[in-house]
Amino acid sequence: MQVTEKTWGKLIEVDVLIMGTGAAGMGAALRAAGLGADVLMAGKGRLESSGCLGGGNDHYMCVLNTDAPFDTRQDFIEFYLKSTLGYTPGMLGEWFDALEPCLRILEEVGTEFRKNPDGSYYRSVGFGQPGAWWLHIANGQSIKRALAKKIRKAGVSVLDHFQITRLYRDGDRFSGCVGFNVLTGEVSAIRCRTGVMALGFQAVRATNNSTHNPYNVWFSPYNTGSYFVLPFDIGAAVMNVDIYNRATLLPKGWGAPGMNGINNMGGHELNALGERFMGKYDPMMENGKRRNQVAGTVQEQVEGNGPPFYMDMRHFKPEDADYLQNVLMPADKATYGDYRQARGIDFKKAPLEVEVSELSLAGFLHTDDRLETPVRGLYAACNFNTFSGSMSGGYASGRYAAETAHEAPMGQLDEADILAEKARILGPMQVGAQGAMSYDEFEEPIRQVMDYYAKFRRNMPGMELALDKLALIETYENRVRAENLHDLMRTHEAFELLQMCRLHLLACLQRRETGRGMYHLADYPALDPKLGKALVMRKVDNEVRYGWGVLPD
Amino acid sequence: MPPVFDKDKCIKCGLCVLDCPGYILALDKDKDEIPHVIGKYKRECWHCGNCRISCPSGAVSYEFPLYTLV
Question: What ipTM was predicted for this assembly?
Answer without folding.
Answer: 0.96
